[in-house]
Amino acid sequence: MKQFILFAVLAFLFSCSGGNKKQENPEVACDIETLLSIADQNVDKTVTVVGFVTHTCKHSGKKCFIESESQVASLRIEIDPDGEIEAFSPDLTGSKLVVTGILKEQHLSAEFIDERENSVKQFEQEGGSPEVCAAEFNNISSWRKWMKDNDKDYYVMYYMDGLKYELLD
Question: Global pTM?
């Protein structure tokens, strides 16, 4: 039984990583939490992920954000110029998508995070939205905790250059 469970877990993780080739079957899409748990091993690789659209860039349509079903994790999707996606319509908000793309990472330096905190403090002093400020301070706090826990002087953010998507709703 233990061998079967181990095989099932390994098969699932491999299906999420996609190796170095494009995945053609959206049924092997993994959830965002699973992808993020193995993201460091899949940077610059083609992966397929499933999530619910929470926001699309209304001006250019070049970005959207998808969230896991549990609403614990989210992922920014940017349009890859070599892909099939022309734009993300605002009508997609709330829809469930399977997105295939290249996983990327971005490092937020400690200096950037300090600057971000100072700008949020200034925004707060100027009467900015308490909800927005609280959310930003929570983000900054979690970034610093991750940096400390992982002994890094930067925070890693993962995002995807989207090649194609399929609407599931």
Answer: 0.75
